[in-house]
Amino acid sequence: MVDLRSDTVTRPTAAMLSAMAGATVGDDVLGDDPTVQELEEFGAELMGKDAGLFLPSGTMSNNVAIAALTRPGDEALLDWDAHSLRHECGAPAVLSGVVLRQYRSDTGIPRVSEIESAIQSETLHAPGTRLILLENTHNASGGTVIPLAVHRRIFDVARDADVSVHLDGARLFNAAVAAETAVVEYARFADTVTFCLSKGLGCPVGSVLTGNAETIDRARRLRKRFGGGLRQAGFLAAAGLYALRHHRDRLVDDHRRARVLAEHLAELSGIQVDLKSVQTNMVYFETTGSAKVWVDALAREGVACLALGEHRIRMVTHLDISDVGIDHAIEATRKIDRLLSSTGASQ
Ligand SMILES: Cc1ncc(COP(=O)(O)O)c(C=O)c1O
Predict the structure, then answer these.
(1) Where are the domains of the chain?
(2) 59 CB less than 6 Å from ligand 1?
(3) What is the dihedral of CA 41, 44, 49, 52, to 10 degrees?
(4) Model pLDDT for residues 194-236, shown as the tens digit of each residue
(5) From the CA of 294, how far away is ligand 1's center (Å)?
(6) What does the longest C-alpha to C-alpha distance in the chain come to?
(7) How close is the Cα of 272 to the center of ligand 1, in Å?
(8) Residue ranges in the chain modelled with pLDDT below 70
(9) Cβ atoms of 176 and 195 closer than 8 Å
(10) Atom of ligand 1 nearest to the CA of 207
């Protein structure tokens, strides 16, 4: 199966497994797992922050950050299609008690003036805006990259209004590779940054949250409260350290393969792809006919992808997808396109 559903489906490589097996571990809740500490320090160093915190997932990392930077009743601004709004089961509202107000974006790029005018001070009536959430790359817009200049402008606006900025950088390394910009440049314009190890970097588990020492101390306590304290987590952290050392530069291959795939898909009669949105490792496209029919037909040809709407499909490249896999996916989509258009099912 060429599994293009998500970049989260990867299995650890033999080298990663051997790094995990050889890890020196302790009890991280008791504060003595040296490999977790090494990962947290390395993550913080990469982002130019004081401290890091290893967490089981991107969802927990986002929500620990939100809780650390707000008080119940505060307002947080986030994109209308942000992962934290659409795919975290309402966690910011439930776990932090924040009021979520949405701003619009163009292919994932926030409109700075809209954010600026949305910020409000606390009054007898209004919840005060305390936090702006950004997501780079922007998943639902197709893995698009927010330009550094937009981060800078938003951070300036936030600073002037005494509002914090959290960056959901689940795929920040993809953004950095695509923009040929160091991750630390993005991180400069956020108070907290989280990045996932379990996506393009190819680890089985894990995210790292980074920020200043005081915020990360608070986040460590919140992680415990949310049930995310892990014991011999060094085995997992070793995978993260391995990935940060060996799997960052290769993201460029995932991006090249996604582009090749998208350009072939764009030639098919039953598919529409906005090639401008294909900037990293994701290819979102519309099908003229039913997305489900396409997904089922592709599965029979050994290609897995996700239907994310009646006419919307996502394919994602990652560590376990080779050029051969892409060729197979291209052949399979061509075949299904011919089949569906000959039966009229692509209409
Ligand atoms: C942009 C973004 N943020 C956060 C997450 C959450 O990560 P996790 O699945 O590890 O909870 C995802 C997951 O796909 C994501 O795409």
Answers:
(1) 14-246, 250-341
(2) yes
(3) -80
(4) 999 999 999 999 999 999 999 999 999 999 999 999 999 999 9
(5) 25
(6) 64
(7) 26
(8) 345-347
(9) no
(10) 10
